[in-house]
């Protein structure tokens, strides 16, 4: 009897399996819920960009009150992401003290611009604005180096190519020109460089029509050295051109210099400057010494940052002197095994010119140089 009673109280095997399954299933659900809760809490601290964008899109069809909430939320979210990008770039700048072709911030912005161009529905970071500052000259003075150096600054966004808007493409209009510019935040300066502007007669008036408050940067260099560098570049592309002496003089025996040759005409700085001063104040023009840019790049860039109203972030720690090329390069970033130097077309060995020809050109340029020094209030010591 006792055996039968105990047997009737024992749970059948099928029920035991069911209860075991329910117990395991309950534990699994609890564990999944715990994991989800942890991930969700992490997401509130550092929100996922796709989740935020999804929220913004989902709120579009709600009522006016919700729409206002959406507008505020999405605006704050977008601004927060931009600030985060800026912060990461500046931190990288401070940690490394050097950059490749672009600064860390420049790279961040370039990636954002690329993403936005591929996705018309993506949020826009900053706006395309007409330039606040222009590097207007001079050819073979060191303008490319100045552009690459100033682009290290996180408060500067610059167009990498030369748009030639104010000399060749003016008929395309300001909207076309603005469309070429990188996106900038309100705190940033938009820049571009086209060295031929300085010697283009119409450029000052056209730039003034765009904005009379535009800041202008002119990189000047000993006009004799500049002319030889200009010729060397042309010779590398057209090996069959006449000699430097033939192009530089109408009559060398009489010392008659051919001022119609562009390589000579560019170096007559005072004549071009007088044209610019009809439209801009001298205080709006900053002159960078091409020679000091080689011997003291940090000093020249420091003065340029002051002129642009920027904090002095570009300093000695960003440069080293490349003895092979003969000019300073940017130190390599941690992400690269190579330093950032200008291209092969920069730092060419100049064509050897007879010393007597050089002396004749120095005599020709001397009165132009003296007037230029007096006008800008600085002696560049080219004699």
UniProtKB/TrEMBL annotation:
3'-phosphoadenylyl sulfate binds at residues 140-144, 221, 229, 346-350. Disulfide bonds join 329-341. The chain crosses the membrane at residues 21-40. Keywords: Disulfide bond, Glycoprotein, Golgi apparatus, Membrane, Signal-anchor, Transferase, Transmembrane, Transmembrane helix. It is a single-pass type II membrane protein. Its EC number is 2.8.2.-. It is found in: Endomembrane system; Golgi apparatus membrane. It comes from the Eukaryota. GO terms for cellular component: Golgi membrane. Residues 132-366 form the Sulfotransferase domain. Coiled coil: none annotated. Residues 104-126 are annotated as: Disordered. The active site is at 140 (for sulfotransferase activity). GO terms for molecular function: [heparan sulfate]-glucosamine 3-sulfotransferase activity. Belongs to the sulfotransferase 1 family. This is Sulfotransferase. It comes from Sinocyclocheilus grahami (Dianchi golden-line fish). The gene is LOC107550309.
């Amino acid at each position: 009897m006792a055996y039968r009673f105990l047997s009737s109280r024992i749970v059948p095997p099928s029920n035991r399996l069911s209860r075991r399954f329910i117990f395991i299933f309950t534990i699994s659900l609890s564990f999944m819920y715990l994991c989800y809760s942890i991930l969700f809490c992490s997401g509130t601290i550092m929100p996922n960009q796709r989740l935020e964008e999804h929220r913004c899109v989902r709120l579009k069809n709600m009522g006016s009150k919700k729409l206002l909430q959406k507008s505020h939320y999405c605006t704050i979210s977008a601004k927060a992401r931009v600030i985060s990008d800026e912060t990461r770039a500046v931190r990288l700048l401070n940690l490394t003290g050097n950059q490749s072709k672009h600064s860390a911030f420049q790279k961040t912005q370039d990636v954002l611009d690329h993403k936005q161009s591929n996705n018309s529905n993506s949020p826009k970071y900053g706006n395309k604005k007409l330039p606040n500052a222009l590097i207007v000259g001079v050819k073979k003075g060191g303008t490319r180096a100045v552009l690459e150096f100033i682009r290290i600054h996180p408060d500067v966004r610059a167009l990498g190519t030369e748009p030639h808007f104010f000399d060749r493409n003016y008929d395309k209009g300001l909207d076309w020109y603005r469309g070429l510019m990188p996106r900038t935040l309100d705190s940033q300066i938009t820049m571009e460089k086209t060295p031929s502007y300085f010697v283009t007669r119409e450029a000052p008036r056209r730039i003034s029509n765009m904005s009379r408050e535009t800041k202008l940067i002119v990189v000047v260099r000993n006009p004799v050295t500049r002319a030889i560098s200009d010729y060397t570049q042309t010779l590398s592309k057209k090996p069959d051109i006449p000699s430097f002496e033939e192009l530089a003089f109408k009559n060398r025996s009489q010392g008659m210099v051919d001022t119609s040759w562009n390589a000579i005409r560019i170096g007559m700085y005072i004549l071009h400057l007088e044209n610019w001063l009809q439209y801009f104040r001298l205080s709006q023009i900053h002159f960078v010494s091409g020679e000091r840019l080689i011997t003291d790049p940090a000093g020249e860039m420091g003065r340029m940052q002051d002129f642009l109203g920027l904090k002095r972030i570009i300093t000695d720690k960003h440069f080293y002197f490349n003895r092979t090329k003969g000019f300073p390069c940017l130190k390599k970033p941690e992400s690269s095994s190579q330093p950032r130097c200008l291209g092969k077309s920069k730092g060419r060995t100049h064509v050897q010119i007879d010393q007597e020809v050089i002396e004749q050109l120095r005599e020709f340029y001397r009165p132009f140089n003296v007037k230029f020094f007096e006008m800008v209030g600085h002696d560049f010591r080219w004699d």
